[in-house]
Amino acid sequence: VSSGSHERVALRTCPLCEATCGLSIALSGDRVLRITGDEQDVFSKGYLCPKGTTLGDLHTDPDRLRGPVVKRNGVFVPVGWDEAFSEVARLFRPLLADPGPDCIGVYLGNPIGHNLSGLIYPRVFLKALRSRNLYTASTLDQRPKDLSNALLYGERYTLAVPDIDRTQFMVVLGANPMVSNGSLATAPGWPRRLKALVARGGRLVVIDPVRTLTAELAHQHIAPRVGTDAALLLAMVHVLFDEGLVRMGRLTDHVHGVEELQELAQPFNPERLAAYTGVACETVRTLTRAFAASSAACIYGRIGTTATRFGSISSWLIDAINVLTGNLDRIGGAMFPMPATGSANTRGRPGQGRGFVMGRHHTRVRRAPELFGELPTSCLAEEIDTPGSGRYRGLLLVGGNPVVSAPSSARLDAALPGLDAIVAIDPYINDTTRHAHVILPPPSPLQRSHYDLHFTQWSVQNVAKYSPAPLPLEPGQLDEWQIMCRLASAVDGSNQSVGRVDERLVESIVRAGVQDESSVVFGVSVDRILEQLAPRTGPERILDYMLRVGPYGDGFGQTPSGLTLEKLQQNPHGIDLGPMEPRLPEVLRSGDGKIHLAPSLLMQDVGRLRLDIDVGPATGLQLVGRRHVRSNNSWMHNIPSLMTGKERCTLMMHPVDAQERDLQTGATACVTTTTGEIQVVVQVSDRMARGVVSLPHGWLHDGLDTRLSTARLRPGANSNRLADGQAVDRPSWTSVLNGFPVEVHALTTQSQKATQK
Ligand SMILES: Nc1nc2c(c(=O)[nH]1)N[C@H]1C(S)=C(S)[C@@H](COP(=O)(O)OP(=O)(O)OC[C@H]3O[C@@H](n4cnc5c(=O)[nH]c(N)nc54)[C@H](O)[C@@H]3O)O[C@H]1N2
Ligand SMILES: Nc1nc2c(c(=O)[nH]1)N[C@H]1C(S)=C(S)[C@@H](COP(=O)(O)OP(=O)(O)OC[C@H]3O[C@@H](n4cnc5c(=O)[nH]c(N)nc54)[C@H](O)[C@@H]3O)O[C@H]1N2
Ligand code: SF4
Ligand SMILES: [Mo]
């Protein structure tokens, strides 16, 4: 698209958060003039947030690495790609030979999920490494939901998302989409959509210990005690049975375990739980009745329900309530998307799968089970610093910053220098990558094409949109998929070209397709398919394949009007594939084709919850996390325009809690747990409930050997120095990042004590 002689406009989906907004990028040459929302984008319709406008600043950030660096005598020096990959081979290959692949850990961070290369190519280096020690940011995030999805429906990404645009009653637990723009429910413009819900007379209820911006929009804000959602949800299930409100309608035939769940919930009446949850029994009963009475209701939970002590139970019961009230798979309820590039629930036999197993291998130190092939990041530090055979010797970091993002972060920070080899694919030298021996930087988002393979799986509208790279790679620069291919051949010693690694990957993907009885290309020859994909290469070739064999695809000519990448290229604002449609029972992939409402693993975990309830509500202060619209996890603090204004890394606390500790807004507090201690600026706020303090994660960039000149000016404090990697949601091993006890003191008294020692 061009306008004027020098100015042109490029369209690119924003890769920063799950909202997938369409951006309209005005360019002059390779200079970004401005970024606005793409009004014609079929999904985001012009919506964007302040972060989306800063991709040009990210592109020009002088601290962002433009070429690989290798550490020599403790300092990073720029090298060419050949030298960088030789160094990778020199570091990793001896370790792979002895003691072997399992001495290497791999960590895949959040931006990998927002990245076309990152969603396709990691398998090439994982195969080359042959290590089973894969860690991901998901294990700090949504893992309990993945687990409950797998147990209920047979597959982790069979995720019921709130039908936000058509619902009449929405309960939001532990999420603040007015700020986060939503998660595990992709919808650009959550704020607009929530306001539309209110405007059409729908009801919004927010359950959050903090009076967030989302809570302010709601008709009702319920502030439970931190970490008690599982009990609150059990009480709602109890009321559904107790008051005869269960109405499963057409779901009835597809559901197993209703009686077991009823029996389980029997003792959990809201009267008994009120002291524990802090929510009056009448509030629970009234809410449950109103929810059950609505013809289109959904309950949705996010990180304030997952990264908590009972995250798996909460994740499960959220779906259970949607099922028991007949709202699962109902228009305006919680529904299953149908992504254009397919997913595990569009492949294989419709309505039935193999079910799922976990624990095929375990971590060495704490024996934490593998889940979906991944190990919990809560265990990473100890696998590195615990002596003994099997201790990790090398680490590959791909788009992750666990020294800031993971619990027990001081321990991880101290452990990393003990490794023989750390390689990072990352654009920045930050708190984690400063420990690397080699850093391989991907190009900026503006130099890469985009398609949301991941988020279309939980998108509230079925859409498909491809963006070509707005700007070309600079001479000598590698795209991220090329880095991943070269990494693979450096590690396996084959020294195959990028082209060859890519060929082998696409061949293996197509071969799996033609051997899959459920695929439209079953029985077709691999070569015929590859001919039709030519002359594309790289992620575009694989994307084209996925679209063409996907649910709306052209099936390589079988449905000529169907989707292809070429068709997406002709529709740069995206193609609207329509609202979500009911998908039961076809969507199920459980072993017996049923929804398992009472999975034994989670039923058993209720014993742990029961003990907690018996112990009673925690005393003292509980820490929770929060997000800010101008901040993105740990890595956008180097963008000057996002860093203006008031201090954002503050400890928010209730006026009385602050007063009791002689703290005022602007004072520095010392926050301690059994794991660590930080100092942080206080912000007194009546948004907070008594006993709850809130601190954002993703801060602290004061390491002298980082290259983050803007971020370092306002380092904030790292909340994960307080979080304890030993504290997990038992079934999923997800870290408790929301809801752990802290002590808070005014800095002066604390520092005086320290000097007296
Ligand atoms: N601007 C911005 N947007 C982001 C991100 C970002 O860093 N910045 N990060 C992205 C990522 S990776 C994710 S996963 C999503 C997360 O998206 P959200 O889950 O919407 O994230 P938060 O804003 O942290 O909201 C969590 C809420 O849970 C509440 N909470 C804490 N403990 C409890 C509890 O025990 N019970 C209940 N009911 N509530 C509790 C907190 O007070 C908070 O309001 O956001 C994404 N979007
Ligand atoms: N206390 C607390 N901790 C939390 C959370 C919380 O709520 N509270 N939230 C958790 C959640 S939900 C998440 S998702 C995790 C995130 O945890 P991480 O994924 O570990 O952290 P990010 O901050 O997303 O770090 C992203 C890294 O990727 C790099 N990067 C950016 N773009 C690219 C790219 O295109 N390619 C590559 N290769 N690298 C890139 C950045 O420079 C940065 O180093 O944090 C978790 N940690
Ligand atoms: S909400 Fe903001 S950060 Fe998220 S995709 Fe849209 S513009 Fe990007
Ligand atoms: Mo996340």
Helix and strand arrangement:
Layout: E1 7-13, E2 22-28, E3 31-37, H1 55-60, E4 69-72, E5 75-78, H2 81-97, E6 104-108, H3 116-120, H4 122-129, E7 133-136, H5 143-153, E8 161-162, E9 169-173, H6 177-180, H7 190-199, E10 203-207, H8 213-217, E11 220-222, H9 229-242, E12 255-256, H10 258-265, H11 270-277, H12 281-293, E13 297-301, H13 303-306, H14 311-324, E14 334-335, H15 380-385, E15 394-398, H16 402-405, H17 409-415, E16 421-425, E17 438-440, E18 461-464, H18 480-492, H19 498-514, H20 526-533, H21 538-549, H22 565-570, E19 575-579, E20 595-596, H23 600-615, E21 621-624, E22 650-653, H24 655-660, E23 668-672, E24 677-684, E25 692-694, E26 728-729, E27 734-735, E28 740-746, H25 747-756
Parallel strand pairs: 6-7, 6-15, 9-10, 9-13, 10-11, 12-20, 15-16, 16-17, 21-25, 22-24
Antiparallel strand pairs: 1-2, 2-3, 4-5, 4-17, 8-14, 18-19, 21-28, 22-25, 23-24, 23-28, 26-27
Helix pairs in contact: 2-18, 4-18, 5-14, 9-11, 9-12, 9-14, 11-12, 18-19, 19-21
Bound molecules: ligand MGD (2 copies), iron/sulfur cluster (SF4) and molybdenum atom (MO).
Care to describe what's here?
- This protein has about 750 residues and is α/β, with parallel strands linked by helices.
- About 30% of the residues lie in helices and about 15% in strands.
- It contains 25 helices and 28 strands.
- The strands form eight sheets. A seven-stranded mixed β-sheet has the order 5-4-17-16-15-6-7, with helices on one face. A six-stranded mixed barrel has the order 21-25-22-24-23-28. The protein has a four-stranded parallel β-sheet with strand order 11-10-9-13, with helices on both faces.
- Strand 10, helix 8 and strand 11 form a beta-alpha-beta unit.
- Helix 2 (about 80-95) packs across helix 18 (about 480-490), helix 4 (about 120-130) runs parallel beside helix 18 (about 480-490) and helix 9 (about 230-240) packs across helix 12 (about 280-295).
- The radius of gyration is 25 Å and the shape is globular.
- Bound molecules: ligand MGD (2 copies), iron/sulfur cluster (SF4) and molybdenum atom.
- One ligand MGD binds next to helix 6 and helix 13.
- Molybdenum atom binds near residues 110 and 141.
